[in-house]
Design brief:
Number of strands: 0
Structural class: mainly alpha
Number of helices: 4
Radius of gyration: 12 Å
Distance between the termini: 20 Å
Helix content: 55-70%
Order of helices and strands: HHHH
Length: 62
């Protein structure tokens, strides 16, 4: 959940997206269930993840 909080702090997620993704993850009891997250939430999470790894000089963080 810390990663979701960081995405929210960086304004890569809206408060509603943060809430919805967090709620899904909390109620999912297995990794398989997490993978069943609705497609629109996956897209938002994927985009935020990509943006978090972006560096303006073209390098990626590791």
């Amino acid at each position: 959940m810390l990663l979701l909080d960081e995405m929210l702090d960086l304004q890569l997620l809206t408060a509603d997206q943060h809430r919805d993704i967090g709620a899904w993850v909390r109620q999912a009891r297995t990794p398989e269930r997490i993978l069943q997250m609705p497609a629109h939430l996956w897209r938002v999470l994927e985009n935020a993840s990509l943006l978090m790894d972006f560096e303006p000089d073209g390098a990626t963080r590791h």
